Amino acid sequence: MNKKAEGVRKIWDRYKYAVLVVLIGAGLLLLPAGRRAAEAPAEAQVAAEPDLQAALEEILGNISGVGQVKVLLTLDSDGEAQLAQDTELSYSGNTASPEDYARRSKTVLVDGASGDETVVIRRVYPTYRGALVVCQGGGRAEVRLAVTEAVAAVTGLPSDRVTVAKWQ
C-alpha cells in the first residue's frame, strides 16, 4: 500500500503541470464568447446595398465556370455620412461662467445641379458580416476559390466569412 502511494505521488509530481494546463484550458473553453459576441445584434442586417449585390452578381457571372449566380450580403453596420454643420452658440451672463447658453445647428446646404445638396465631410462605408454566393459552378473547387477571392476583395471580408454553394 505504501509503495502504491509513493508511485502515485511520483506520477503526480511528474505530470501536475500538464494536468493544471488541461484544467485551465477546459475552464477557458467554458467561459462566454467575449465582448464582440455580446455586442452583435440578434439578427444580421441583410442587403442594405442592393446595388453592390447586383454588381457582384453581374461580375461573378463573368468568371469562367461560374454560370448563374445569386449573392446575399449581410451587414454588421450600414455605414454613415457625417454632414457639415453650421453651429451657433449663444450665452448670457459672464463669459467665464455663463448663466445660460443655447446651441443651434443647421446642416450646410450648397447649390447643386439638382437643387440644394448637403455637404458630406466624412463617410463611413458599410462593414459586412458575411456573404453567401450560390452559383452553378459552386461544386468545383477552382470556381469556389475564384469566387471567394473576388467577394473577399470587394467586400473586405476574410475568406472564412464567404460561403460558395452549388446552384441546384
Short summary of the structure?
The chain has 168 residues and is an alpha+beta fold. The chain has helices spanning 2-30, 35-39, 50-60, 141-155, and strands at residues 45-46, 69-77, 80-83, 85-92, 100-107, 109-112, 115-118, 120-124, 127-135, 162-166.
Topology record:
Elements: H1 2-30, H2 35-39, E1 45-46, H3 50-60, E2 69-77, E3 80-83, E4 85-92, E5 100-107, E6 109-112, E7 115-118, E8 120-124, E9 127-135, H4 141-155, E10 162-166
Parallel strand pairs: 9-10
Antiparallel strand pairs: 1-2, 2-9, 3-8, 4-5, 6-7
Cα(first) to Cα(last) distance is 69 Å
List the uncertain runs. Answer: 34-48
Structural class, from helix and strand content? Answer: alpha+beta
The spatial strand order of the largest sheet comes to 1-2-9-10
Task: Report the C-alpha radius of gyration, rounded.
Answer: 29 Å
Task: Characterize the structure shown.
There is one protein chain. The chain is an alpha+beta fold and 168 residues long. It has four helices and ten strands. Strands 1-2-9-10 form a four-stranded mixed beta sheet, covered by helices on one side. Strands 3-8 form a two-stranded antiparallel sheet. β4 (85-92) and β5 form a beta hairpin. The radius of gyration is 29 Å and the shape is flat. The termini are far apart.
